[in-house]
Design a protein that fits this description.
498 residues, alpha+beta, Nucleotidyltransferase, domain 5, 7-stranded mixed β-sheet, 6-stranded mixed β-sheet, 16 helices, 19 strands, 39% helix, EC 2.7.1.17, D-xylulokinase activity, kinase, FGGY_N
């Protein structure tokens, strides 16, 4: 197998699968994506059909193959949304729709497990359990749908379902496994006591394999469906957080990555554990480089907040309001949005405090305000939640020397500038914004022997525009953040009491 060939990076995201081909020289050669729906059968329930992921993946790969030729592809790496769970029966058929990360139906089970096993969760799993975690979802399934768990012979995570369809292999990686809430952070083994407490057999979980190794090879059926040659090596890669860390170049301590996809991820690479221990709203995940860890803060509704506002203002597309035209409405709005504050809790809060019942809100609206102030307030509200994450990292002993932004919302210049103003730090935009899919492709390059992780990142990850804090907006941004914090604290308190 050519070590200098291109690799495919497949990112099974929340709203679409994205596939990129990255050459051995670090250039992105081609890209393709396919959207798919999610359903909400009840409040707090969010599901997807794994077959939609697979159909989208096949179509996107075929588009890449048509663009650059199958002979140029030397390997495949995977990335995917964290904390989605797929149940397979004895014939490897999907038993029910996948419960994805946005689903919070397991909140009560998370609270119960944390009360009974809090020390085990903190000391071995290095987590404060929330309803987002797969462990809580499986506990809910054990109680509400025992017939499905009884018929289950394999439990897979999102990207690992695609790995299985591509290769027949059953495996996950440490970052995906860690996010579930039941992997031992030191040994990278499943914690059987937690599975027992949740009501299922830990033997149903996939083996945990290194991110930067080959987990399987492309099978004949998948090769025929994609147009790729059978036998291609496939690396398990990482959950989207680990992949985006690689795609943003967050491989050295001090580099902070901020992504504005459906969710907002704030990631920092560190060599060690937090000095002051774990705190709510903070997640510790394995890095693709086993010598490092990822510190994670989560904005549940990052890019989703601005997409929601666009959908609302355009009456679900019935009005001809382009996304770029909407963001331009804020061009003449000062920092602080003339007193309007937005809480970006459309899907609950994660950092600084996990609250599944927290809700978004506009505060301070008057008849003198318009859509421009609302757009500005939404971008600021997400930026303020990002600042919550950086303050938490620094309190835990993290060091931030550089800030990089990527993913969908980073295409909005005004939003990048607001983040720089709010963080009071220069922010650089990653040239290749699809960080998770690129990160997956780079992990595949390491797996097939094309170089060390540091080397493949250096030749691929480049920054484009730099946004410096605007001195004339700093004071107003600080005042708006303090207003935001008072309102957010009140909402988080209300959600805790509800």
């Amino acid at each position: 197998m050519r070590k200098d060939g291109a690799t495919l990076g497949i990112d099974v995201g929340t709203s679409a699968v994205k596939v990129v081909a990255v050459g051995g020289d670090g250039r992105v050669l081609a890209r393709a994506s396919r959207p798919y729906p999610m359903t909400s059968p009840a409040p707090g329930f969010v599901e997807q059909d794994p077959e939609d992921w697979w159909r989208g993946t096949l179509a996107a790969i075929r588009e890449i193959v048509a663009a650059i030729g199958a002979e140029r592809i030397a390997g495949i790496g995977l990335s995917g949304q964290l904390n989605g769970v797929v149940l397979l029966d004895g014939d490897n058929r999907v038993l029910r729709p996948a419960i994805i990360w946005l689903d919070t139906r397991g909140a009560a089970q998370a609270t119960e497990l944390a009360a009974r096993h809090g020390a085990l969760l903190r000391e071995r799993a290095a987590t404060d359990l929330t309803g987002i975690a797969v462990l809580a979802k499986l506990a809910w399934l054990a109680k509400a749908e025992p017939e499905h768990l009884a018929a289950t012979r394999r439990i897979l995570l999102v990207k690992d379902y695609i790995l299985h369809r591509l290769t027949g292999a059953i495996a996950t990686d440490p970052s995906d496994a860690s996010a579930t809430g039941m992997m031992d952070a030191r040994t990278h083994a499943w914690i059987g006591e937690l599975a027992d407490a949740a009501g299922f057999d830990a033997g149903l979980l996939p083996p945990i394999a290194p991110s930067l190794a080959v987990a399987g090879h492309l099978g004949a059926e998948a090769a025929a469906a994609t147009g790729l040659p059978s036998g291609l090596p496939v690396a398990p890669g990482g959950g989207d957080v680990a992949a985006l860390a690689v795609g943003c170049g967050v491989v050295e301590p001090g580099v902070l990555g901020v992504t504005l996809g459906t969710a907002g991820h704030v990631v920092l690479a560190e060599d060690g554990l937090p000095r002051s221990g774990m705190e709510p709203g903070f997640w510790l995940l394995p890095h693709a480089d086993p010598a490092r860890s990822i510190w994670l803060g989560l904005v549940m509704s990052g890019g989703l907040s601005l997409a929601w506002l666009h959908r609302t203002l355009s009456l679900n597309g019935r009005l001809p309001l382009a996304f770029e035209a909407m963001t331009a409405l804020a061009d003449d709005v000062p920092a602080g949005a003339r007193g309007v504050t937005f809480l970006p809790f459309l899907e609950g809060s994660a950092t600084p405090v996990p609250r599944a019942g927290a809700r978004g809100a506009f505060h301070g609206l008057a008849s003198s305000h318009g859509a421009g102030e609302m757009v500005q307030a939404v971008m600021e509200g997400v930026a303020f939640n990002v600042k919550d994450c950086t303050r938490l990292f620094e309190r835990l002993g993290g060091h931030i020397a550089e800030v990089r932004v990527a993913e969908g919302g980073a295409r909005v210049d005004a939003w990048c500038a607001i983040i720089a103003d709010v963080l009071e730090r220069p922010v650089t935009r990653i040239e290749e914004l699809d960080a998770s899919s690129v990160g997956a492709a780079l992990m595949a390059q390491v797996a097939i022997g094309a170089g060390s992780l540091d080397a493949v990142v250096r030749r691929t990850v480049a920054t484009s525009r730099r946004f410096d804090p605007r001195p004339e907006r700093i004071a107003a941004s600080r005042a708006a953040y303090e207003r935001y914090r008072r309102l957010a604290d009140a909402e988080l308190s209300r959600a805790a009491d509800a």
